[in-house]
Specification:
single chain, mainly alpha, 2 helices, 0% strand
């Protein structure tokens, strides 16, 4: 549920520059989690 709210806020309010930074952070965290599970 929280993720949906974050996505909505992301689409609605963030500037493109902030969106890119936010997306990079999320992707980085996601990659770390995936790597953790694959080890």
């Amino acid at each position: 549920m929280k993720a949906i709210a974050i996505q909505w806020i992301d689409k609605s309010f963030m500037s493109n520059e902030l969106k890119d930074k936010y997306k990079m952070l999320v992707d980085e965290r996601h990659t770390r989690i995936e790597n953790h599970y694959h080890e």
